[in-house]
């Protein structure tokens, strides 16, 4: 039975690594996965899912206005596909998450989404909020704060390492821009005492 899955975490928890391992497992069993990532995030190159540990793979891309139900339907028309993997799922729109749910329900294909839960201000991304509402199963991928506790928040830093408290929700970056922290240390970093 097909389901919509949401695997979420903060930055640098290994979401892409877990996605790539799961896709590899499908291939190892003779099944074909379909990998998609956000066109917006091209840090590893356009149409590429890559992990900090050095593994990566080519993928199709989605943009914010694209109909993902139609995209998946078209891909299924090309041949058998066992599972859809979506990286950077926090960049999905609310409408696109509903399209993914339709693909699960109407096309009978499992969809596994991987993305951030909250932004640097502690607010849900629209795609993440919709996935939290609609997913059949959710799994937190954990990473740790410098204190050893589970990191559930992330701060954004400028080039000098100063904490950024305001700005656009989306700013593409990695370790040079973001640090994962537990809630207590996030609150301290952003001046919420």
Notable traits:
193 residues, Rossmann fold, six-stranded parallel sheet, three-stranded antiparallel sheet, 5 helices
The total tally of domains equals 1
**Number of distinct helices:** 5
Strand elements, count: 13
Secondary structural class = alpha/beta
Query: What would you say the CATH architecture is?
Result: 3-Layer(aba) Sandwich
Which CATH class? Alpha Beta
The SSE order reads EHEEEEHEHEHEEEEEEH
CATH topology: Rossmann fold
Which residues form runs of ≥5 with pLDDT under 50? Answer: none
Spatial ordering of strands, largest sheet: 5-2-6-7-1-8
Descriptive overview:
The chain has five helices and 13 strands. The protein is α/β, with parallel strands linked by helices. The chain has one domain: Rossmann fold. The strands form four sheets. Strands 5-2-6-7-1-8 form a six-stranded parallel β-sheet, with helices on both faces. Strands 12-11-13 form a three-stranded antiparallel β-sheet. A two-stranded antiparallel sheet has the order 3-4. Strand 3 and strand 4 form a beta hairpin.
């Amino acid at each position: 039975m097909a389901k919509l899955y949401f695997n979420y975490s903060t930055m640098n928890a290994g979401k892409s690594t877990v996605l790539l391992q799961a896709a590899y497992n499908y291939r190892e069993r003779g099944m074909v996965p379909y990998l998609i990532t956000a066109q917006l995030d091209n840090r590893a190159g356009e149409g590429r899912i890559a992990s900090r540990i050095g593994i990566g793979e080519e993928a199709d891309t989605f943009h914010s206005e694209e109909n993902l139900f139609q995209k998946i339907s078209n891909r299924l028309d090309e041949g058998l596909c066992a599972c859809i993997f979506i990286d950077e799922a926090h960049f999905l729109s609310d409408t696109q998450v509903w399209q993914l749910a339709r693909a699960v329900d109407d096309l009978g294909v499992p969809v596994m989404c991987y993305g951030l839960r909250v932004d640097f201000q502690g607010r849900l991304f629209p795609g993440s909020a919709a996935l939290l509402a609609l997913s059949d199963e959710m799994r937190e991928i954990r990473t740790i704060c410098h204190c050893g506790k589970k990191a559930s928040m992330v701060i954004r830093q400028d080039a000098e390492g100063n904490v950024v408290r305001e700005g656009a929700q989306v700013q593409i970056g990695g370790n040079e821009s973001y640090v994962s922290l537990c809630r207590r240390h996030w609150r301290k970093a952003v001046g919420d005492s």
